[in-house]
Design brief:
The structure holds 2 protein chains of 2 kinds. Chain A is α+β, with helices and mostly antiparallel strands. Chain A folds into 3 domains: 48 residues, 2-Layer Sandwich (Uridine Diphospho-n-acetylenolpyruvylglucosamine Reductase, domain 2), CATH 3.30.43; 112 residues, 2-Layer Sandwich (Uridine Diphospho-n-acetylenolpyruvylglucosamine Reductase, domain 3); 112 residues, 2-Layer Sandwich (Enolase-like, domain 1), CATH 3.30.390.50. Chain A has 12 helices and 14 strands. In chain A, helix 11 packs across helix 12. The longest helix of chain A is centred in the C-terminal third of the chain and has 24 residues. A 5-stranded mixed β-sheet of chain B has the order 2-1-5-3-4, with helices on both faces. In chain B, helix 2 packs antiparallel against helix 5. The longest helix of chain B has 17 residues. The chains are: A alpha+beta, B alpha+beta. At the A-B interface, helix 2 and helix 6 of A face strand 4 and helix 3 of B.
Protein backbone atom coordinates (compact mmCIF):
# COMPACT_ATOMS: atom_id res chain seq x y z
CA UNK A 1 0.00 0.00 0.00
CA UNK A 2 2.16 2.81 -1.25
CA UNK A 3 1.10 6.39 -1.54
CA UNK A 4 1.37 8.13 -4.87
CA UNK A 5 4.38 10.37 -5.45
CA UNK A 6 3.77 13.95 -4.40
CA UNK A 7 5.75 17.03 -3.57
CA UNK A 8 5.83 17.91 0.13
CA UNK A 9 5.75 21.43 1.54
CA UNK A 10 6.05 22.40 5.20
CA UNK A 11 5.33 26.11 5.56
CA UNK A 12 6.15 27.83 8.85
CA UNK A 13 3.81 30.84 8.74
CA UNK A 14 0.20 31.51 7.71
CA UNK A 15 1.44 33.82 4.92
CA UNK A 16 3.63 31.09 3.41
CA UNK A 17 0.72 28.65 3.69
CA UNK A 18 -1.71 31.01 1.93
CA UNK A 19 0.80 31.60 -0.83
CA UNK A 20 1.14 27.84 -1.40
CA UNK A 21 -2.61 27.27 -1.24
CA UNK A 22 -3.13 30.06 -3.81
CA UNK A 23 -0.38 28.83 -6.12
CA UNK A 24 -1.05 25.09 -6.02
CA UNK A 25 -4.85 25.27 -5.92
CA UNK A 26 -6.86 22.09 -6.22
CA UNK A 27 -3.81 19.96 -7.07
CA UNK A 28 -2.76 20.30 -3.43
CA UNK A 29 -4.22 18.87 -0.25
CA UNK A 30 -3.66 20.26 3.20
CA UNK A 31 -2.13 17.78 5.63
CA UNK A 32 -3.10 18.38 9.27
CA UNK A 33 -3.59 15.11 11.18
CA UNK A 34 -3.73 12.92 8.11
CA UNK A 35 -6.03 10.41 9.78
CA UNK A 36 -8.52 10.78 6.95
CA UNK A 37 -6.22 12.04 4.18
CA UNK A 38 -3.56 9.33 4.45
CA UNK A 39 -6.20 6.61 4.49
CA UNK A 40 -7.94 7.83 1.32
CA UNK A 41 -4.56 8.37 -0.35
CA UNK A 42 -3.53 4.82 0.51
CA UNK A 43 -6.77 3.58 -0.98
CA UNK A 44 -5.92 5.63 -4.11
CA UNK A 45 -9.26 7.40 -3.83
CA UNK A 46 -7.35 10.63 -4.30
CA UNK A 47 -3.80 11.24 -5.53
CA UNK A 48 -2.84 14.87 -4.92
CA UNK A 49 0.27 16.26 -6.65
CA UNK A 50 1.23 18.34 -3.62
CA UNK A 51 0.80 18.10 0.13
CA UNK A 52 0.95 21.21 2.30
CA UNK A 53 1.80 20.10 5.85
CA UNK A 54 0.51 22.79 8.22
CA UNK A 55 1.83 21.19 11.42
CA UNK A 56 4.75 23.62 11.50
CA UNK A 57 2.47 26.66 11.65
CA UNK A 58 1.96 27.60 15.31
CA UNK A 59 -0.75 30.17 14.49
CA UNK A 60 -3.08 27.39 13.32
CA UNK A 61 -2.98 25.64 16.68
CA UNK A 62 -4.37 26.38 20.09
CA UNK A 63 -7.45 27.34 22.05
CA UNK A 64 -8.19 30.85 23.25
CA UNK A 65 -11.03 30.59 25.73
CA UNK A 66 -11.55 33.61 27.96
CA UNK A 67 -14.31 34.35 30.44
CA UNK A 68 -17.22 36.02 28.66
CA UNK A 69 -15.56 36.01 25.25
CA UNK A 70 -16.51 32.67 23.74
CA UNK A 71 -13.61 30.78 22.25
CA UNK A 72 -11.38 30.77 19.22
CA UNK A 73 -9.94 27.42 18.19
CA UNK A 74 -7.20 27.11 15.58
CA UNK A 75 -7.94 24.76 12.69
CA UNK A 76 -5.04 22.43 13.51
CA UNK A 77 -5.88 22.08 17.20
CA UNK A 78 -5.78 18.38 17.94
CA UNK A 79 -8.99 16.74 19.10
CA UNK A 80 -7.22 15.38 22.19
CA UNK A 81 -6.33 18.92 23.20
CA UNK A 82 -10.00 19.90 22.96
CA UNK A 83 -11.06 16.74 24.81
CA UNK A 84 -8.73 17.49 27.74
CA UNK A 85 -9.02 21.31 27.77
CA UNK A 86 -10.55 22.32 31.10
CA UNK A 87 -11.78 25.59 29.62
CA UNK A 88 -13.62 23.78 26.80
CA UNK A 89 -14.96 21.13 29.19
CA UNK A 90 -16.42 23.86 31.39
CA UNK A 91 -17.83 26.12 28.69
CA UNK A 92 -18.61 23.71 25.82
CA UNK A 93 -18.98 20.24 27.39
CA UNK A 94 -20.78 18.89 24.31
CA UNK A 95 -17.77 19.71 22.12
CA UNK A 96 -15.23 18.28 24.58
CA UNK A 97 -17.30 15.10 24.82
CA UNK A 98 -17.71 14.74 21.05
CA UNK A 99 -13.98 15.34 20.49
CA UNK A 100 -13.20 12.63 23.06
CA UNK A 101 -15.36 10.09 21.22
CA UNK A 102 -13.67 10.41 17.81
CA UNK A 103 -11.76 7.30 16.70
CA UNK A 104 -9.13 6.24 19.21
CA UNK A 105 -6.65 7.96 21.49
CA UNK A 106 -4.04 7.86 18.72
CA UNK A 107 -6.46 9.34 16.20
CA UNK A 108 -7.43 12.12 18.60
CA UNK A 109 -3.78 13.05 19.15
CA UNK A 110 -3.27 13.32 15.40
CA UNK A 111 -6.58 14.54 13.99
CA UNK A 112 -7.48 18.22 13.96
CA UNK A 113 -10.76 20.01 14.57
CA UNK A 114 -10.53 21.65 11.14
CA UNK A 115 -9.97 18.33 9.46
CA UNK A 116 -13.02 16.80 11.09
CA UNK A 117 -15.16 19.49 9.42
CA UNK A 118 -13.23 19.77 6.14
CA UNK A 119 -13.38 16.03 5.53
CA UNK A 120 -17.13 16.69 5.30
CA UNK A 121 -18.22 13.21 6.28
CA UNK A 122 -21.91 13.10 7.21
CA UNK A 123 -20.97 10.93 10.20
CA UNK A 124 -18.35 13.33 11.61
CA UNK A 125 -18.60 13.87 15.36
CA UNK A 126 -17.51 17.44 16.06
CA UNK A 127 -19.47 19.41 13.41
CA UNK A 128 -22.74 18.39 15.10
CA UNK A 129 -22.08 20.11 18.48
CA UNK A 130 -20.22 22.95 16.76
CA UNK A 131 -23.28 23.76 14.65
CA UNK A 132 -25.52 23.50 17.73
CA UNK A 133 -23.24 25.91 19.60
CA UNK A 134 -23.43 28.33 16.64
CA UNK A 135 -19.76 28.12 15.63
CA UNK A 136 -18.45 30.12 12.72
CA UNK A 137 -15.49 29.24 10.53
CA UNK A 138 -12.88 31.67 9.28
CA UNK A 139 -11.76 31.02 5.70
CA UNK A 140 -8.49 32.67 4.74
CA UNK A 141 -6.71 33.30 1.47
CA UNK A 142 -3.96 35.63 0.28
CA UNK A 143 -6.58 38.28 -0.42
CA UNK A 144 -8.19 38.23 3.03
CA UNK A 145 -10.63 36.44 5.26
CA UNK A 146 -14.34 35.68 5.40
CA UNK A 147 -16.52 34.27 8.13
CA UNK A 148 -19.27 31.78 7.64
CA UNK A 149 -21.53 29.81 9.99
CA UNK A 150 -20.28 26.20 10.01
CA UNK A 151 -23.69 24.93 8.89
CA UNK A 152 -23.31 26.94 5.65
CA UNK A 153 -19.70 25.83 5.16
CA UNK A 154 -20.44 22.09 4.96
CA UNK A 155 -22.58 21.62 1.86
CA UNK A 156 -22.78 17.87 1.52
CA UNK A 157 -20.76 14.68 1.39
CA UNK A 158 -17.13 15.84 0.83
CA UNK A 159 -18.44 19.22 -0.34
CA UNK A 160 -17.50 22.55 1.19
CA UNK A 161 -18.16 26.19 0.45
CA UNK A 162 -14.45 26.69 -0.08
CA UNK A 163 -13.16 28.68 -3.06
CA UNK A 164 -9.89 27.78 -4.75
CA UNK A 165 -7.03 29.36 -2.81
CA UNK A 166 -8.97 29.41 0.44
CA UNK A 167 -8.44 27.36 3.58
CA UNK A 168 -10.14 27.01 6.94
CA UNK A 169 -7.97 28.65 9.60
CA UNK A 170 -10.06 28.89 12.75
CA UNK A 171 -13.36 28.36 14.49
CA UNK A 172 -15.11 31.12 16.42
CA UNK A 173 -17.47 29.95 19.15
CA UNK A 174 -19.94 32.38 20.71
CA UNK A 175 -20.12 32.75 24.48
CA UNK A 176 -22.94 30.51 25.79
CA UNK A 177 -25.94 32.55 26.96
CA UNK A 178 -27.10 32.62 30.57
CA UNK A 179 -29.41 29.70 31.39
CA UNK A 180 -28.33 27.73 28.35
CA UNK A 181 -26.76 24.34 27.80
CA UNK A 182 -25.68 22.11 24.94
CA UNK A 183 -25.45 18.34 25.07
CA UNK A 184 -24.22 15.71 22.62
CA UNK A 185 -24.94 12.01 22.23
CA UNK A 186 -24.25 9.34 19.64
CA UNK A 187 -25.16 5.81 18.84
CA UNK A 188 -22.98 3.31 17.07
CA UNK A 189 -22.17 -0.34 17.05
CA UNK A 190 -19.56 0.01 19.80
CA UNK A 191 -17.77 2.78 21.63
CA UNK A 192 -14.34 2.79 20.07
CA UNK A 193 -13.07 3.15 16.52
CA UNK A 194 -16.51 3.22 15.05
CA UNK A 195 -18.41 5.57 12.86
CA UNK A 196 -21.63 6.84 14.37
CA UNK A 197 -24.87 5.61 12.90
CA UNK A 198 -26.58 8.68 14.37
CA UNK A 199 -25.21 11.56 16.40
CA UNK A 200 -27.03 14.57 17.74
CA UNK A 201 -26.53 17.77 19.70
CA UNK A 202 -29.17 19.91 21.39
CA UNK A 203 -28.63 23.44 22.58
CA UNK A 204 -31.32 25.04 24.76
CA UNK A 205 -31.63 28.54 26.16
CA UNK A 206 -34.28 29.37 28.76
CA UNK A 207 -35.96 32.69 29.58
CA UNK A 208 -35.51 34.45 32.94
CA UNK A 209 -38.18 32.28 34.57
CA UNK A 210 -35.84 29.31 34.10
CA UNK A 211 -38.59 27.15 32.58
CA UNK A 212 -39.74 28.58 29.26
CA UNK A 213 -37.68 27.80 26.18
CA UNK A 214 -36.27 30.98 24.66
CA UNK A 215 -34.20 29.36 21.95
CA UNK A 216 -33.40 25.82 20.89
CA UNK A 217 -31.28 24.18 18.22
CA UNK A 218 -31.30 20.47 17.49
CA UNK A 219 -28.64 19.20 15.08
CA UNK A 220 -28.46 15.69 13.68
CA UNK A 221 -25.44 13.98 12.17
CA UNK A 222 -25.23 10.90 10.00
CA UNK A 223 -28.85 11.10 8.85
CA UNK A 224 -28.43 13.64 6.06
CA UNK A 225 -25.59 14.60 3.66
CA UNK A 226 -24.55 17.33 6.08
CA UNK A 227 -25.31 18.33 9.68
CA UNK A 228 -29.08 18.71 9.68
CA UNK A 229 -30.51 21.58 11.72
CA UNK A 230 -34.10 20.84 12.69
CA UNK A 231 -36.61 23.49 11.67
CA UNK A 232 -39.53 21.95 13.49
CA UNK A 233 -37.97 21.77 16.93
CA UNK A 234 -37.74 25.56 17.45
CA UNK A 235 -41.26 25.97 16.03
CA UNK A 236 -42.64 23.47 18.54
CA UNK A 237 -40.60 24.44 21.58
CA UNK A 238 -39.94 28.18 21.67
CA UNK A 239 -42.17 29.85 24.23
CA UNK A 240 -43.15 26.50 25.74
CA UNK A 241 -42.30 24.69 28.93
CA UNK A 242 -40.94 21.20 28.44
CA UNK A 243 -43.33 18.37 29.26
CA UNK A 244 -43.28 14.67 28.52
CA UNK A 245 -46.02 15.02 25.88
CA UNK A 246 -44.13 17.85 24.22
CA UNK A 247 -40.87 15.87 24.21
CA UNK A 248 -42.68 13.00 22.51
CA UNK A 249 -44.11 15.35 19.88
CA UNK A 250 -40.74 16.95 19.24
CA UNK A 251 -38.97 13.60 19.03
CA UNK A 252 -41.49 12.44 16.42
CA UNK A 253 -41.01 15.64 14.44
CA UNK A 254 -37.23 15.17 14.30
CA UNK A 255 -37.81 11.62 13.15
CA UNK A 256 -39.79 12.98 10.22
CA UNK A 257 -37.05 15.41 9.29
CA UNK A 258 -34.16 12.92 9.28
CA UNK A 259 -33.37 11.45 5.86
CA UNK A 260 -31.07 8.55 6.70
CA UNK A 261 -29.81 5.92 4.29
CA UNK A 262 -29.29 2.18 4.58
CA UNK A 263 -25.63 1.30 4.76
CA UNK A 264 -23.17 -1.11 6.33
CA UNK A 265 -23.46 0.56 9.74
CA UNK A 266 -27.23 0.63 10.17
CA UNK A 267 -30.49 0.55 8.30
CA UNK A 268 -32.44 3.72 7.65
CA UNK A 269 -35.29 2.36 9.73
CA UNK A 270 -33.02 1.78 12.73
CA UNK A 271 -31.49 5.23 12.36
CA UNK A 272 -34.93 6.84 12.37
CA UNK A 273 -35.74 5.01 15.62
CA UNK A 274 -32.46 6.16 17.15
CA UNK A 275 -33.13 9.77 16.14
CA UNK A 276 -36.22 9.63 18.33
CA UNK A 277 -34.36 8.04 21.23
CA UNK A 278 -31.51 10.54 21.15
CA UNK A 279 -33.85 13.53 20.72
CA UNK A 280 -35.86 12.50 23.75
CA UNK A 281 -32.75 11.92 25.86
CA UNK A 282 -30.92 15.07 24.83
CA UNK A 283 -33.89 17.40 25.20
CA UNK A 284 -34.27 16.27 28.80
CA UNK A 285 -30.54 16.45 29.52
CA UNK A 286 -29.98 19.86 27.93
CA UNK A 287 -33.13 21.29 29.53
CA UNK A 288 -32.09 20.10 32.98
CA UNK A 289 -28.57 21.42 32.46
CA UNK A 290 -29.88 24.80 31.33
CA UNK A 291 -31.97 24.95 34.51
CA UNK A 292 -28.79 24.27 36.43
CA UNK A 293 -30.13 21.01 37.83
CA UNK B 1 13.57 12.25 -5.31
CA UNK B 2 15.07 11.18 -1.98
CA UNK B 3 15.79 13.66 0.72
CA UNK B 4 18.16 13.28 3.66
CA UNK B 5 16.33 13.83 6.95
CA UNK B 6 17.18 13.42 10.61
CA UNK B 7 14.88 11.51 12.91
CA UNK B 8 15.22 11.52 16.68
CA UNK B 9 14.23 8.01 17.70
CA UNK B 10 14.69 6.99 21.34
CA UNK B 11 17.07 9.92 21.89
CA UNK B 12 19.35 8.86 19.09
CA UNK B 13 19.62 10.77 15.82
CA UNK B 14 19.26 8.68 12.68
CA UNK B 15 20.05 10.16 9.29
CA UNK B 16 17.91 8.53 6.65
CA UNK B 17 17.21 9.12 2.97
CA UNK B 18 13.47 9.19 2.44
CA UNK B 19 10.98 9.86 -0.26
CA UNK B 20 8.15 12.29 0.62
CA UNK B 21 5.67 9.41 0.45
CA UNK B 22 7.58 7.11 2.83
CA UNK B 23 5.62 6.27 5.94
CA UNK B 24 7.16 6.48 9.38
CA UNK B 25 6.48 2.79 10.14
CA UNK B 26 8.42 1.64 7.05
CA UNK B 27 11.34 3.95 7.79
CA UNK B 28 11.53 2.84 11.43
CA UNK B 29 11.36 -0.86 10.52
CA UNK B 30 13.26 -1.06 7.26
CA UNK B 31 15.68 1.84 7.19
CA UNK B 32 16.43 2.33 10.87
CA UNK B 33 16.02 -1.37 11.61
CA UNK B 34 13.96 -1.14 14.79
CA UNK B 35 11.44 -3.89 14.22
CA UNK B 36 9.68 -3.72 17.60
CA UNK B 37 7.04 -1.47 16.07
CA UNK B 38 4.54 -3.64 14.19
CA UNK B 39 2.57 -2.99 11.05
CA UNK B 40 -0.90 -4.45 11.32
CA UNK B 41 -3.73 -3.08 9.23
CA UNK B 42 -1.81 -0.22 7.64
CA UNK B 43 -4.95 1.90 7.80
CA UNK B 44 -4.73 3.40 11.24
CA UNK B 45 -7.34 1.11 12.74
CA UNK B 46 -5.50 -1.53 14.77
CA UNK B 47 -2.91 0.46 16.75
CA UNK B 48 -0.06 -2.07 16.34
CA UNK B 49 2.11 0.67 14.79
CA UNK B 50 1.64 3.10 17.70
CA UNK B 51 4.71 5.16 18.58
CA UNK B 52 5.00 8.15 20.88
CA UNK B 53 5.68 11.44 19.16
CA UNK B 54 6.63 14.12 21.67
CA UNK B 55 5.05 11.81 24.25
CA UNK B 56 1.70 11.47 22.47
CA UNK B 57 0.52 8.21 20.90
CA UNK B 58 0.37 8.41 17.12
CA UNK B 59 -0.10 5.90 14.32
CA UNK B 60 3.12 5.49 12.36
CA UNK B 61 1.38 3.70 9.47
CA UNK B 62 -0.52 6.84 8.50
CA UNK B 63 2.24 9.30 9.38
CA UNK B 64 4.80 10.56 6.88
CA UNK B 65 8.41 10.11 7.94
CA UNK B 66 9.26 13.49 6.45
CA UNK B 67 6.65 15.09 8.71
CA UNK B 68 8.27 13.57 11.80
CA UNK B 69 11.50 15.58 11.64
CA UNK B 70 12.37 17.59 14.71
CA UNK B 71 10.12 15.51 16.94
CA UNK B 72 11.02 13.12 19.72
CA UNK B 73 9.94 9.67 18.58
CA UNK B 74 9.73 6.84 21.14
CA UNK B 75 9.36 3.23 20.04
CA UNK B 76 9.08 0.16 22.25
CA UNK B 77 12.88 -0.21 22.12
CA UNK B 78 13.16 3.17 23.83
CA UNK B 79 11.46 1.96 27.00
CA UNK B 80 14.32 -0.31 28.04
CA UNK B 81 15.77 0.67 31.41
CA UNK B 82 19.36 0.74 32.59
CA UNK B 83 21.10 -2.61 32.40
CA UNK B 84 18.51 -3.93 29.94
CA UNK B 85 15.81 -4.14 32.61
CA UNK B 86 12.21 -4.09 31.48
CA UNK B 87 10.15 -0.94 31.91
CA UNK B 88 7.61 -1.30 34.76
CA UNK B 89 4.76 -1.39 32.24
CA UNK B 90 6.49 -4.14 30.27
CA UNK B 91 7.13 -6.02 33.50
CA UNK B 92 3.47 -5.67 34.49
CA UNK B 93 2.38 -7.05 31.10
CA UNK B 94 4.69 -10.05 31.60
CA UNK B 95 3.61 -10.62 35.21
CA UNK B 96 -0.07 -10.52 34.38
CA UNK B 97 0.04 -12.69 31.29
CA UNK B 98 -1.08 -9.77 29.15
CA UNK B 99 1.14 -10.92 26.30
CA UNK B 100 0.12 -13.86 24.17
CA UNK B 101 1.14 -13.70 20.51
CA UNK B 102 2.74 -10.34 21.23
CA UNK B 103 1.93 -8.59 17.97
CA UNK B 104 -0.22 -5.89 19.59
CA UNK B 105 2.00 -5.59 22.65
CA UNK B 106 4.45 -2.84 21.60
CA UNK B 107 1.59 -0.54 20.59
CA UNK B 108 -0.47 -1.53 23.59
CA UNK B 109 2.42 -0.73 25.98
CA UNK B 110 3.13 2.64 24.35
CA UNK B 111 -0.56 3.58 24.58
CA UNK B 112 -0.47 2.52 28.24
CA UNK B 113 2.57 4.70 28.81
CA UNK B 114 0.91 7.72 27.20
CA UNK B 115 -2.14 7.16 29.41
CA UNK B 116 -0.13 6.82 32.64
CA UNK B 117 2.05 9.83 31.78
CA UNK B 118 -1.08 11.94 31.54
CA UNK B 119 -3.17 10.21 34.18
CA UNK B 120 -1.19 8.10 36.69
CA UNK B 121 -4.32 6.88 38.46
CA UNK B 122 -6.73 5.81 35.74
CA UNK B 123 -10.04 4.12 36.41
CA UNK B 124 -10.93 0.96 34.56
CA UNK B 125 -13.05 3.08 32.21
CA UNK B 126 -10.09 5.42 31.53
CA UNK B 127 -7.92 2.43 30.63
CA UNK B 128 -10.55 0.95 28.33
CA UNK B 129 -11.24 4.30 26.70
CA UNK B 130 -7.60 5.19 26.10
CA UNK B 131 -6.53 1.73 24.94
CA UNK B 132 -9.52 1.32 22.64
CA UNK B 133 -7.35 2.11 19.61
CA UNK B 134 -5.21 -0.97 20.19
CA UNK B 135 -6.74 -4.21 19.05
CA UNK B 136 -5.74 -7.52 20.63
CA UNK B 137 -7.09 -10.78 19.21
CA UNK B 138 -5.66 -13.08 21.90
CA UNK B 139 -6.20 -11.92 25.44
CA UNK B 140 -9.72 -10.62 25.57
CA UNK B 141 -8.22 -7.50 27.15
CA UNK B 142 -8.89 -8.49 30.75
CA UNK B 143 -5.25 -9.21 31.57
CA UNK B 144 -4.11 -6.14 29.70
CA UNK B 145 -6.35 -3.95 31.84
CA UNK B 146 -5.07 -5.72 34.96
CA UNK B 147 -1.50 -5.12 33.83
CA UNK B 148 -2.10 -1.39 33.35
CA UNK B 149 -3.77 -1.19 36.77
CA UNK B 150 -0.76 -2.92 38.31
CA UNK B 151 1.67 -0.66 36.44
CA UNK B 152 -0.28 2.36 37.69
CA UNK B 153 0.33 1.24 41.26
CA UNK B 154 4.08 0.91 40.68
CA UNK B 155 3.96 4.20 38.82
CA UNK B 156 2.45 6.20 41.67
CA UNK B 157 4.73 4.50 44.20
CA UNK B 158 8.03 4.93 42.41
CA UNK B 159 7.32 7.85 40.09
CA UNK B 160 8.72 6.11 37.02
CA UNK B 161 9.31 8.02 33.79
Amino acid sequence: MFLNHFEYFAPKTPAETMELVARLGSKAKILAGGTDLMVVMKAKAISPDYLIDINGVEEFKGIICEEGKGAVIGTNTKLAEIQFSEAIQAKYPALAYAAGEVGSSQVRHMASLGGNSCNASPAAETPTPLVAIGAKVVLSSISGERELPLEEFILGVRQLDLAEGEMLTKFILPEPAQRSACRYAYMGRRDAMEIDCVNMAVSIELTDDGETVKDVKLVMGSVYPRPLVSKEVPALLIGQKLSDQLIEKVAEATQGEAKPIDDIRASAEYRREIVKVLARRLLKEAYAAAQGV
Amino acid sequence: MKKLIELNINDRIYEVAVDARDLLIDVIRKKVGLTGTKKGCGDGDCGACTVLIDGKPELSCIKLAIASQGKKITTIEGLVQEGGKLHPIQQAYVDHGAVQCGFCTPGMILSSKALLDRNPQPTEYDIKHELSGNICRCTGYKRIIEAVEAAAKVWSKEGVQ
